[in-house]
Amino acid sequence: MKTILNFRFWILDSRRAACATIVLLAALAATTGCQPSEPAKSDAPTSTTETTSNAATPAEPAAAKKLTIGVMPKLVGIPFFTATEKGAKEAGAELGVEVVFDGPPKNDVQLQVQMLETWIAKGFDAIAVAPNDPDAIAPVLEKARKRGIKVIAWDADAKKEARDFFVNQCTGASVAKALVDVMAEGAGPEAKYIIVTGSLTAANQNIWMAEMEKYRQEKYPNMKNLSETPKVSEEDPALATQVTADSLKAYPDLQGIFAITSVALPGASEALRKSGMADKVLLTGLTTPNSMKEYITDGTVKKFVLWNPVDLGYLAVHAAVASVKGELQPGATTFKAGRVGERSVLEGDQVILGDPIVFTKDNIAQFDF
Fold first, then answer.
1. Other Cβ atoms closer than 10 A to 8
2. pLDDT band at residue 65, thresholds of 50, 70 and 90?
3. CATH code for residues 172-306
4. Superfamily assignment of 68-168+309-353 in CATH?
5. Secondary structure of residue 40 in the 3-state scheme
6. Which H or E run contains 351?
7. For the chain, which residues make up each domain, given as ranges?
8. Where residue 2 falls among pLDDT bands split at 50, 70, 90?
9. 172-306 has the same fold as 68-168+309-353
């Protein structure tokens, strides 16, 4: 009996030992399966220096933020400002910045203010604007400057405290001299004239008229303005035609007309051509050559004045970008701007494009803007 019991215990112990062995083997297999496989060995030697160097190489720096420059004309859809857009976009491509060129459909300063508020909210780096009214637009420009946005006035100036620089096509005195000399040459030093302007609040036009009067008094004291208040065309060609036609009837002794905006002169030319009075009334002013070729060809207008608006837009963007980058500082006396070269800076904050051009039948075909 004792022998039988011992045999049973032996079997039981053998079974326990076998189970323990199976569990141990399973555990070892599981542990081995969790280990990462050993990488394949390479015959190429490993460089400790190279490995350390690669590990220490910092990530490449993020690309510099592309500047965004907002360029706003007095209004869109007229040849003069279309030409300035061409120059602005050219400068933007050259400088590697984004140029947003947009403006109101009419010369309305409140529409300009609304659009500028949007540009400020978007965080533009610089704003270049041709103000319809320097006083009304001043608060929004001052707001932009407080937000760190550089503000450039161009074509027409803003209040000095509301902008950083003014990109001026020509000095007021040089524009006035060119216009009044054309009138004196064509209608005589004692000519009786009127002025057709765009808006009574446009700073550049008001400066030109003040300089014209100053130059007239100095050089042609017997020349006479028949209307102290200029005729307003509101940058509307149909209105310019109408006010000119009305003036030809209202002033029987009229000998000359200055139409001093790019919209007013073509409109006035149409009225003068229809009146058949081009041989009695000398018409001159400021506009683009493409809008005047037909009137120069048929003799309605003999001479008129302007500058290169493509270059004006180009210079405005160059000045805006240089201001953002700190390359154009207050107090500068010159400024180099790409293909237009070195330009004069007057009073430390007024960048001058150059002198006006007088267009005639002899040179108008050379220009395409």
1. 9
2. confident
3. 3.40.50.2300
4. Response regulator (3.40.50.2300)
5. coil
6. strand 350-352
7. 68-168+309-353, 172-306
8. very low
9. yes
Starting at the earlier edge strand, list the strands of the sheet with 341-346: 98-101, 68-72, 126-129, 150-154, 165-168, 350-352, 341-346, 334-337
Q: 201-223: string of b/e by CB count within 10 Å (b at 16+)?
A: bbbbbbbbbebbbebbeeebeeb
Mean pLDDT across 256-277: 98
Q: How far apart are CA 149 and CA 192, in angstroms?
A: 47
Asked whether residue 134 carries a pLDDT value surpassing 50, the answer given is yes
Find out whether 346 and 173 touch, Cβ atoms under 8 Å.
no
pTM above 0.85, yes or no: no
CB 270 within 8 A of CB 277: no
CA distances from 43 to 40, 46, 115, 239 (A): 10, 9, 68, 88
Q: Is 252 exposed, middle or buried (0-12, 13-18, 19+ CB in 10 A)?
A: exposed
Looking up tokens 């405005």, which residue turns up? Answer: 316
- Helical residues (DSSP H) of 252-355, grouped into ranges: 264-275, 293-297, 309-325
Please tell me the distance from the alpha carbon of residue 269 to that of residue 7, in angstroms, as a whole number. Answer: 132
> Tens digit of pLDDT for each residue in 234-254?
999 999 999 999 999 999 999
What gap in Å lies between CA 275 and CA 288, rounded to an integer?
A: 23
Beta-strand (E) ranges in 95-213? 98-101, 126-129, 150-154, 165-168, 192-197
